[in-house]
């Protein structure tokens, strides 16, 4: 099929559907690398179809396969149910003792930029499943949680507003969790958003071992701060400084 | 968490092996190189050398420690590989039992030989 | 954990690449192949250890038995295999140090804001991986020289 500069694998698939085979099935939505629907295996490497350009691939032939390590529904469409089940099992949400504050919040949880940096990278995950497809442990072990759920668990464990480390620890205790990651690094290699699940899982192992040795710093590293109170706008100090730019 | 405890112990065993097996292999595999520079010396595999090591409490203790750490580390690894590759709780439990039994059996054999040898 | 947790966590799924998937399964980076080699060398070392425990127990049977055993284990083929065991240890140990540093979170770098082209933990640990391979190479050479001077 004809391919021009800038043409993506996703556009190629649409060409095939329009001109060659109208029965081809695959998932896509945003076509701009944010929804995570179009993850496929391109010449043995997992990635998004929408942000992989055809002419960037140096091989003479392009072979598309559905994501590995999942059952296939049809053509390029995998059944990602197991991935999302494992994700849910690891409680991917803030867990706090003061549930009232979460349900009907009165204030704001204080969080410094440094505290935000501890987990922000891992929140960019778009749940595309490329990492799950690339992971060699996922390739054998059905019960292994996989890079995406483990990264999500670490994202919440390292959020200073979270108090759910113990609860997630219990959910992780299946014998098929972080200890079965051996840092082959494939997940980080293929992640289309730079989430670096490999980094997240090693940092999670470190926090789990620190917890084991009773060396982990306790949770509760945040406090509720009062919402800002509306100020009287006639207050001199709140007026903007005079405009000083001159027209030429 | 049990799996993280074993994972951590595996690292501790690895560090023990790094030192002890490093020394053991240096003695067995780099001795010729060492003697090339420092002058001829006894072959560590000669009977007299074997007896001499057998009579040293330090050597015996370090051999037993090395054997224990190496078996733990090795069977932890094999256990990982098999548990990942095999499905089903039964098969995975069987792998666990097998690894423990094999590891302990080999440890007992090795320790017995080490302690029982007295140069006779 | 609840029974539900256990059921979901151990649910079968198809599409897995099989028993030896860790050995070969798609194009990998350097770290992916180091993972394979680490497992292969580990299995080889464990297999050797089992043999070694039994072979060296022959010292219980006295000097004559020991000497004839040493004659058998010093044939050229056996010496070559012994070198391979030494090589497996050299790689497994040095790569193991690298893995300990990575898996305890020391060599993966701190979390940051990802900016394309996303230099993450793979980039951070790459110098460590290269140094590890150089040290392994040096140890292999030293072992080779030793073998030639036996």
Task: Briefly characterize the structure.
The complex is a heterotrimer of chains A (248), B (120) and C (150). Helices cover 32% and strands 8% of the residues of chain A.
Structure report:
- The complex is a heterotrimer of chains A (248), B (120) and C (150).
- The termini of chain A are far apart.
- By secondary structure, chain A is mainly α.
- The mean pLDDT of chain A is 91.
- In chain A, helix 2 (81-89) runs parallel beside helix 6 (147-157) and helix 6 packs across helix 9 (197-212).
- Chain A has 9 helices and 7 strands, in the order H-E-E-E-E-E-H-H-E-H-H-H-H-H-H-E.
- Chain A is globular.
- Chain B has 120 residues and is mostly helical.
- Chain C has 5 helices and no strands.
- Chain C has helices at residues 3-9, 30-56, 63-72, 76-103, 121-148.
- The longest helix of chain C has 28 residues, at 76-103.
- The N and C termini of chain C lie far apart (58 Å).
- In chain C, 29% of the residues are buried.
- Chains in contact: A-B, A-C, B-C.
- At the A-C interface, helix 2, helix 4, helix 8 and helix 9 of A face helix 1, helix 2 and helix 4 of C.
Within the largest sheet of chain A, what's the order of strands? 2-1-3
Tally of DSSP β-strands of chain B: 0
Question: How would the global form of chain B be characterised?
Answer: elongated
Beta-strand portion of chain A reads: 5-15%
Q: Main sheet of chain B? A: none
List keywords for this structure.
heterotrimer, B: 120 residues, mainly alpha, 5 helices, elongated, C: 150 residues, 0% strand
How is the secondary structure organized here?
The complex is a heterotrimer of chains A (248), B (120) and C (150).
Chain A: H1 9-20, E1 39-42, E2 45-48, E3 64-65, E4 72-74, E5 77-78, H2 81-89, H3 99-103, E6 108-109, H4 113-120, H5 130-134, H6 147-157, H7 165-172, H8 186-190, H9 197-212, E7 224-225
Antiparallel strand pairs in A: 1-2, 1-3, 4-5, 6-7
Helix pairs in contact in A: 2-6, 6-9
Chain B: H1 2-29, H2 31-38, H3 47-54, H4 57-85, H5 89-116
Chain C: H1 3-9, H2 30-56, H3 63-72, H4 76-103, H5 121-148
Helix pairs in contact in C: 2-4, 4-5
